[in-house]
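Tutorial handout. Part one gives the primary structure; part two gives the three-dimensional structure as tokens.
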Amino acid sequence: MKSLRRALLVWLLVGQAAAAPVSVQDDRGLTLQFAAPPARIVSLVPSLSESVCALGACALLVGTDRYSNWPDEVVALPKLGGLDDAQVERIVALKPDLVLAAPTARVVGRLDALGLKVMVMHTRNHAHVRHNLERLGVLLSEPERATALWYVIEKQMDQAAARVPKALRGRSVYFEVESSPYAAGPASFIGETLQRLDLRNIVPAALGPFPKLSPEFVVRASPDIVIAEERNARDMARRPGWPAMPALQQHQVCAFATERYEVLVRSGPRMGEAALQLADCLAGLAKEAR
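Part two.
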């Protein structure tokens, strides 16, 4: 029954505009032309998998990267590796009409050479996310849905900004992406969300979207607020010099369980939800500081 429903949904999605040719330009400047909207899609980026599903086309996905795990519909799909080890033979065997990939994916050149249509898409900032939704909306014959989805994201961002306690606005923040430590800089989608919440990033913009910092740099920057995945936040007190940071001393740490943290670090349709999660944590920190 489930396979029948999936087949019916695919038929409906494709049948809406089966005769309409469509073309889009990817972030390499290449124009991809389709005689009809793609009916078989491989996504090698979690946020792009989520975007396809948010546009109502989950049933068109036939495979994803190993990290795509939301929504539930993608969990059982074939997992095809990651940025550095995508499995070319398995991707080709799925006969996709379209492959969605990041610019840094090593597999792009090989898939191009094999004649597959690969759409390379940046996901670094809010503008990229909006543009990606718009292009996918065109490809999937859902431009209005893409516009409406971006409106929801913007509305959620505004709601999140309004929830941030006045006492925390303008405070300095360190958002840890990896424990190396890698941080989210102001030019990243995370950094842009933090700015929308009226927080001041300790990372200089010149260092790029996701720079690797020295542990000493973070200590010297002395952030008022730290945001990290729960397992990394637990280890911070054991890092040399870190226990003296105000954020750790005053328990001004937003530590998120993995499932919730993943929402924060994916530049896709759940960015508004991520902003609301951050705002709720900040509200909790303000209460604790009273």
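Part three, for discussion. The chain has a mean pLDDT of 94. The two ends are 56 Å apart (CA to CA).
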